[in-house]
Amino acid sequence: MIYLDHNATSPLLPEVIEAMRPWLGVPANPASPHRMGQAAAIAVEEARAHVAALLGGRPEGVVFTSGATEANHLFIRGARVPDRSRWWVSAIEHPCVLDAVARRGGEVEDALAVDRDGRCILPELPADLAGLSLMAANHETGVIQALDEARRKTRAIGALLHVDATQAAGRIPLDLSEVDGAVISGHKLGGPAGTGALLLPDGEPFPALLGGGGQERGRRAGTVNTAGAVGLGEACRLARVELATRSARWELLRDALESGLRSLGGRIVGQDVPRVPNTTCVIFAGLRAESLVQALDLHGICASAGAACASGSLEASPVLTAMGDPEPEGGLRLSLGPRSEAGEIQAVLNALGPVLEGARLAARWEEP
To answer: Are 160 and 129 in contact (CB under 8 A)?
Structure first.
């Protein structure tokens, strides 16, 4: 099997498994005062430091969660600015961010437009704005957003900046020390699924979305998943120390992949603007991405047609639609991981030729 769907889920790295192993099947509640509990607490704090180091933040600002979805909801629904309620989002945010804003009572219809390359167009922000949600890099196209500009504009009016860094963490250098809330997910980094973190500026109190306990400095109730936190921490540590080598390898692999895709008639989305080095979104004129995903699967190749949470949907990609792409149903996403190899790229290109030929023949038969 060739796996090129790391933006959906990246397999557990061997080093992460080894780091988690001592904490599986043992009574490791870091809130317990006995020696096992205290050993677990030390391990969790070490993991917290690794998460903070990857994002450029402070360990006391890290809140462990069950994933990016919970972390996004925790911040968006809990953050408050006195006498302000409006919350803006970009039009290409992940569905969980849009849902969190809607549940907060925000106006999702105020979603900010993006240009044809997938970059959010940031206007002057209204003085009564409470917060802005802008992802670091898009989950479908990999296009990197202008966080520095967003930080300047939100700071100028005293609004909060929330950043979903799920698809950027471990793929590009990040310094989110001056962001009000940043979010990552473990299983995008080769860490365990069901883990994530919200990075706040410091350890000050924050309204808990889940109440009933004082864990995570009162910001998220519930027994901390020691093994999961350790696994997330190790994934973040590896991502930080291997960032330069991973990025260089990804750029070489992506360039080879995209050169081959163009030779097969593909159009690369966002090719003229900065993107994370592991992500390619390609469109083949007249072909639906879902049909290509299914055909590639028969060849033992795992790819996707946008966000995994929307997999199987016959609707056009909301991201490509927001970009004004003429074929929003055609975005095939191929995403590399820490252990992707050159041989896999060539194998994908070799398989894709016949797949495209068959898909184009089927499309001609379906024409009225």
So the answer is: no
